[in-house]
Amino acid sequence: SLLIPPLSPPVDLQSHSSASSFPHLEAKIRQTHSLARLLTSYAEQLLQEYVQHQGDPFGLPSFSPPGLPVPGLNSPAPTRSGLPTLERLQLDAAALNSLSPLLDTICHLQADLNPFACRLLRRLEDASHQSRALGSAVEVVLGVLGAAPGPPGPHPILPESPGVFLVKLLGYRVCGLYHEWVCCTEGDLDQLMQEGLG
Amino acid sequence: MEAYFYSRLLSKTGGNKRMSSSKFQWLSSIIFLYLVNQAHGQSRGVPHDLNCITHNLKVWDCSWEALPTINHGTYEICVINSSYPCIRTEKTHFEIPALTFADHEIKINSIHVSGNSVIKFILNERNVSLVPATLQDFNLTADFSTSTLYLKWNDNGSVFPSHSSVIWEIIVQYKEKMEVATVATLNTTLIGKDSVHHWNWTSDIPLECTPHYVKIRYYIDELHFFGQKEWSEWSPLRNISGPPVKENYEVFPRDKVVPVGSNMTFCCVVGEPVLSAQFGKESYSFIRLDRRSVAIKINNITVSPSSGTNVVFTTKSNLYGTVVFAGYPPDIPRKLNCETRDLKEITCSWNAGRPTGFFGPRGTNYILYERFSGRNVTYGRAEEHMNAIHQLIFQMITGQEIYNFTLEANNPLGRSEAVILVNITQRVCPHTPSKLIAKDINSTAIFLYWHLSGNFANINLLCEIEINATYSGQELRNITVRGLETSSYHVYMDKLMPYTMYTFRVRCSSENFWKWSKWSNEKHYLTTEGIPSKGPDIWREWRADGKSVIIYWKPLSLNEANGKILSYNVSYWSEEKTRYLSEIPDSQHKAEIKLDKNDDSDYIISVVAKNSAGSSPPSKITSMEIPNEDIKVEQIVGIGNGILFHWNYDPNMTCDYVIKWCNSTRSEPCLTDWKKFPANSTGALVEYDNFRSGTRYNFFLYGCKNQKYQLLRSILGYTEELAPSVAPNFTVEDTSSDSILVKWEDIPVEDLRGFLRGYLFYFEKGEKGTSKIQGLESGRSDVKVKNITDITQKTLRIVDLQGKTGYHLLLQAYTGGGIGPGKSMYVVTKENSEGLIIAILIPVAVAIFVGVVTSILCYRKREWIKETFYPDIPNPENSKALQFHKSICEGSSTLKTLEMNPCTPNNVEVVETRSVAPKIEEDTEIKSPVTDGPEEGSDAEPENHVVVSYCPPIIEEEIANAGGEEAGSSSQVIYIDIQSMYQPQAKPEEELENHLVGGAGYKPQMHLPVTSTIENIITADDLEKTAGYRPQTNVNAWNLDSPDSPRSIDSNSEIASFGSPCSINSRQFLIPPKDEESPKSSNGGWSFTNFFQNKPND
């Protein structure tokens, strides 16, 4: 659903890079796309690992809580499909950069709740690093393409002393957002490759 | 009460005079006055129903009833005979200080426009009610985290006399319907001053879920107050409503930690309808608390997972939840132990016991508290593992040896503790010694150093040193050293072996042993060399030619060599001279000395081993032996790994005994090894790694007298006997018709592999290549075996064999170790010529003899033979028998030849053979047509025995004429059973004679066919056969076939038999029948050699 055909004009990569740097740009985009695809699968695994440690009904198939608002970070908007690819990538990079501290926070909260869930904690920690890495990689691509990274969004704020249940819900929400944004990034990079390299 | 006042009033006004009136008058007066007063007062608006209460026992508050008409008037209240001033008031009540316990007259003067009226009351404390003041001021607070209400109030005790008992009653109500949650009663005692009282109560419903209301009243039980005591009024209702419901906090209680097994109520406060409630994975039906709140009640909560148990309420648009953590309070710490490694810090360790089920912030915290010093250390967030060891480190306090530790464990559900009192100097388990160093002093002593950190200056250390040497095993030495402050320690290690690789390691404890430290790392150290402790073990052997002697020595063992042997010095001397051989390197362990054995000089040969530290003591041996002529070679078999020798104790043997041995198959000089045994020994077990089973060794036992050896015994021996490895090689030296001579050779010693015990010789008759002798099946009777136990025997003759017969031979040797393989051979014995000749001659001689005898007998019996076989045949032309037919019919009496009464066949026996098989025992009688039944005497088998009555009319007449006695008897033709004819006839000749005597003579047989009866029976062919003369020598009638031959009993032969020689006087066949039962000759397999078959095989 994230790979909606672009309504905006395609990106001309040739015009954004010199002949000598084009292979480098192409490689960078492919590399970033591969990273996004890899992180998409990691994000799915993280979400599965997360719900396993939160107790029922988190692990039940029917569990579908309403999207908890996270100040400063939203789900990818459906209307973003109308935006140019580069703008979408700017949003992706901003969201990924915002997700990194959120994942850190969730990791710390889970360390209290599940101190022996080593794999979950490791995945959360890795996801924080990987989110930041992917955001930076997208920013690099944007820089090469001449599109300045978007302004940093407001730092997400989690409620103070939210209660354990809300902590679990927030973690679920953050992991879900991470998955959504990584998927979006992968789709947008795929779009970029189709437009510019294909 | 008013009546009481009046009664008091009247009693006052009436004075004592009335008291003496009759009771009736007194009572009547009271009633009357009361009624008058009532009527008067009410009619005029005077006070009535005076009522007094007190809230504090100090002031009485009295009030009365009055008509409204006087409401605007004024009252003057005076206590009669009291110092209290009168009170003027417009109200209908007044307050006066508490009066003494007596009747007091109260006068109330109502002053109004219409006039004054006075009324008096008698007031006593008994008429006053104690009603405590309503508790207005109390403090109600709540702890929402624990759903606990806290109530605090002042008892106003300063107002009341002390020691008054107070009963407090508190009611808590909740929910929309104001259900009574609890009713509590408290008893307190007033202490004469204000006291604050507390009461708390935990609701089963979180306080946030629904408002909780509280009210309180009390009752003072003052013993010295004689009035009526009543409960105070209820205090105003106070309520606790939950804190403002924030977003996302709709489910209560939040993050509660409860013990396992608790019952809990969870509520959800939301403005929208709740659709479902879930605890963990279980759904629950909820109960409505009020219009905004629903709850579920969970009983007996089980232990939660690490992240807690989720409680979730679902509405149409959202999901609300909380988490509960159910677990256990901390278990009492188990196996609390405190010890020190360095006397600087104390390590206390323990086992947490039962897991609490809590982790992270809810996990168990531990505090180690030392009572004497008042110091403590903490340990937080203990990880929960069953039997996990936790530990805390407590810094020691200078000068303090006794420590009283209390370990407290706490978590949100409770706390527990364990206590231990230790003298830390007795709980020393030092660190692992390190930096182990060895320094040599001499070849048998070293200094061993190690480092041990810790403040052990005030104690002694007990250290254990483990010494391992390759060849001497393990040794432990314990030493006590004075403790130092983090220093190196060293110890003198003696009694070591020179030039030995040692492995040292150390562990320590305090002198007051508590625990050993861990072993230090191993230290390998090689001690320096020392001089060899003894000379090498030597022996000497003379060359066979006696021209030189070889001196052998064994390398010194490591603990004897005390270093690396560099060389050996060999010297020899006699009384005359001393010689030295050049230095012999270590690799060589023998030396040859040119000496002449025939020389009478006896030399002493000395060998000395040298290493870098010096030379060993010399080992000496004389060159000559003490002769011993009386030597016998013995045999001995070992016990597997060695050979046990015994000898008698000989006091003359002053040095030692030596057993030397060699492989018997080796060439000279015979010396493989030797061993020496003490002079007082009487036996020895000689073990040698290179002893091989099945190998013959020569052992020589020497005794030593005055440093000279004498050979005592020579012994051949095996450590273990084996079966021979090869078969004895044998050949056939000679064969005859009945014997074989075999000869074999000795088996070489190396192949014999044991002491030869004998041979087994097997032989078996049979064709070549068919022998089963190799299998040597036990119990085979056809395999003969000879056990040859005389091992000197080298030949064997096998006799009683059959000539020209093949034999399989097999020869095996056996030892104490078993039977060896066999060598087999196939031999054919020679032909027996004498037997052949005998076999030919004997039958020939017998044949000749039989022929001669037969000839003689035939000659002597020639007449009989002629008479029997070749009788004279009369000329039929001259015979009157030709007139037989006619003469008979004419009844001529001149025909003498026909006077054959005895031969008159009045009974014809017909032999009837119905089958081809020669069953001829049965007589068959041809019945005459005139014969009615079977003849008597033939009833044995009447159905087969047909008797034919035959009575030729002519003969019948003749017979009738011939003898009246036989006239009655029927004339019959009897067919004689030929077999019966051949029944044993004891006296054939006599029978013949009897026939002759009985009128027998030649009886021509041709008379029979002329009978008409016969004609009817016999076919035309038969007639031809039977007609005319039948010479009795007719070969067809009695040829070579026996009478019972099928031919003779053929159906056609009935008539033929009729014409057989039976018709003559004799019924006997001269040629005996073939006897089937007679033994058949086995001529098929017969040969001349069969003459020898009757001999047994052997």
Automatic annotation (TrEMBL), chain A:
Q: Where in the cell is it found?
A: Secreted
Q: What is its main location?
A: secreted
What the entry lists under InterPro entries is as follows:
4_helix_cytokine-like_core (IPR009079), PRF/CT (IPR010681)
Assigned GO CC terms: extracellular space
The entry lists its GO molecular-function terms as:
cytokine activity
Region of interest (Disordered), ranges? 61-81
Q: Which Gene3D superfamilies match?
A: 1.20.1250.10
Q: What does this protein do?
A: Induces cardiac myocyte hypertrophy in vitro. Binds to and activates the ILST/gp130 receptor.
Q: Which PANTHER family match?
A: CARDIOTROPHIN-1, PTHR21353
Q: Which family does it belong to?
A: Belongs to the IL-6 superfamily.
Please report the name of this protein according to its UniProt entry. Cardiotrophin-1
From TrEMBL, chain B:
Location in or out of the cell:
Cell membrane
Q: Which residues form the Fibronectin type-III domain?
A: 332-431, 432-530, 535-629
What is the topology of this protein in the membrane according to its UniProt annotation? Answer: Single-pass type I membrane protein
- Record bears the keyword Lipoprotein: no
Q: Which GO terms describe its cellular component?
A: external side of plasma membrane; receptor complex
Keyword Disulfide bond applies: yes
UniProt cross-references to Pfam families, sorted A to Z = fn3 (PF00041), LIF-R_Ig-like (PF21177), LIFR_D2 (PF17971), LIFR_D4 (PF25552), LIFR_N (PF18207)
A single GO BP term for this record reads: positive regulation of cell population proliferation
* Secretion signal span: none
Q: Which UniProt keywords apply?
A: Cell membrane, Disulfide bond, Glycoprotein, Membrane, Phosphoprotein, Receptor, Repeat, Signal, Transmembrane, Transmembrane helix
Where is the stretch described as Disordered? 921-942, 1039-1098
Polar residues bias locations: 1048-1068, 1080-1098
Question: For this protein, what is any one GO molecular function term?
Answer: growth factor binding
The residues that cross the membrane are: 836-859
What does this gene product do? Signal-transducing molecule. May have a common pathway with IL6ST. The soluble form inhibits the biological activity of LIF by blocking its binding to receptors on target cells.
**Annotated family:** Belongs to the type I cytokine receptor family. Type 2 subfamily.
Subunit and partners: Heterodimer composed of LIFR and IL6ST. The heterodimer formed by LIFR and IL6ST interacts with the complex formed by CNTF and CNTFR.
- Name of this protein: Leukemia inhibitory factor receptor
